[in-house]
Amino acid sequence: MTMEDDFVYDANIKNILEQTELKWIFVGGKGGVGKTSVSCSLAIELAKLHSSVLLISTDPAHNIADSFEQQFTRTPTQVKGVDNLMAMEVDSSPPEESIEEIFADPENEQQNFMKNVMKDVVGNLPGLDELIALVNIFKIVDQHQFDVVVFDTAPTGHTLRLLSIPRSIDKVLRQLIQMKSWVGGLVNAMSGSLGVNATVNMDMMDELLPVIERLNKELKDPDITTFVCVCIPEFLSLYETERLIQKLTALDIDTHNVVVNQVVYPDKTDTGKVSCGLCASRSKMQTKYLDQIADLYEDFHVIKMPQMPLEVKGTKVLKRFGQFLVSPPDMNSKSVHDLVHDL
What we know:
Distance between the termini: 43 Å
Radius of gyration: 24 Å
Helix content: 40-55%
Structural class: alpha/beta
Low-confidence stretches: 194-199
Mean pLDDT: 80
Oligomer: single chain
Order of helices and strands: HHEHEHEEHHHEHHHEHEHEHH
Shape: globular
Strand order of the largest sheet: 3-4-2-5-1-6-7-8
């Protein structure tokens, strides 16, 4: 047996908090499992250790505003009641002007027509919109010099597509750059045949390439990037979590933390009898999947979070929830009513 076999993975997120070089933290999983509660609470804990933390929602159905009970926009905004933490909401599709930058300004209607034709060709490259959105996020982070960024992501499928874009489009962009003289000639030929003058700003693509290279490099670096998977102890969620982890592994993206939300710990009477039949049934059902999670992810930090007796929203509750991520409550000695009192 090796030393690695003897290693015990703590059931908390301290390994993330202790990684001083960590820059990008993605929090994701199936819809409805509590990703936003985890990402907000994790960001609060990180803000205790860093001077500048950014929480970004990339979910089209933004929820961080509801969680913090505060409005956010595309511009980093200070989170009320939490020092060193800012938050913003972004769409996976970039503003129209980002695509526009690839093309020269038209001088007349004919040039505008040609520009629209070429924009349809280049703009429909698979993943280009998500790529430019990622590039814009990188620019914002560099501009404000954030120490660490937490992503509250969209449900699994959308997030995997977003993370795979830099790798898949890198090869395409390199080929386009190699062919840029040919593309320029094609544009000239097309515009000449139509009697117009249109140009494509290929320098824009040259500028994108080093950013994509940086994206690929940092996403694959476990010292810089990690992914926190969030699930609940049910079949569909566990199945999707396993698919997510397999895909992340294929993309060379580090993941070593699984947060299991909404675990039911039934209250018991003084004689040790469970006082709620429904709670007992759900707990029995969940036990089967918790055992499977323990077997599947024995080399992960698995954090079991109890089903909360109230909504996890508002800065005060999120702060307490974050403390549970760092030091999960001992539900053998606590009841749901104790958690209400703690909150």
